[in-house]
Amino acid sequence: TFVVGEDCIKCKHTDCVEVCPVDCFYEGPNFLVIHPDECIDCALCEPECPVDAIFSEDELPADQTEFMELNAELADIWPNITEKKDPPPDAEDWAGKPDKLQFLER
Ligand code: SF4
Ligand code: F3S
């Protein structure tokens, strides 16, 4: 499965949702997640993210392993998203910033 990692938090560009053939992205206030049981590993979303926030679970950085559980947990709670929308106005300011998990809104 593919996993949305920390770099998505407060960036949320949503380009990823447009290419997913099985529509398995789910949207929270400032972060998106992939439903691990629905993702078919097509890899189409990975290059679409402007901040490189999406990883194959095999390539998820060691310091982001908790995002696997987080994607699974939140995908069950949050609503589905299939159409791109504008990112937050300050998305550029947050691109690549470390330690953003503390800002995750549920
Ligand atoms: Fe969707 Fe493919 Fe990305 Fe999985 S890898 S979330 S199926 S676009
Ligand atoms: Fe997030 Fe990148 Fe998609 S910032 S919403 S994973 S395009």
Automatic annotation (TrEMBL):
**Basic and acidic residues: compositionally biased ranges:** 82-106
User: Does Secreted show up as a keyword for this record?
Assistant: no
Q: Which Pfam families match?
A: DUF3470, Fer4
Keyword tags: 3Fe-4S, 4Fe-4S, Electron transport, Iron, Iron-sulfur, Metal-binding, Repeat, Transport
Residue intervals of the 4Fe-4S ferredoxin-type domain: 1-29, 30-59
State one molecular function term (GO).
Answer: metal ion binding
Q: Where is this region: Disordered?
A: 81-106
Tell me the PROSITE patterns matching this sequence. 4FE4S_FER_1, 4FE4S_FER_2
Q: Which cofactor does it need?
A: [3Fe-4S] cluster; [4Fe-4S] cluster
Q: List, alphabetically, the Gene3D superfamilies matched.
A: 3.30.70.20
What job does this protein perform?
Ferredoxins are iron-sulfur proteins that transfer electrons in a wide variety of metabolic reactions.
Q: What is this protein called?
A: Ferredoxin
What phylogenetic lineage does the species belong to?
Bacteria, Pseudomonadati, Pseudomonadota, Gammaproteobacteria, Cellvibrionales
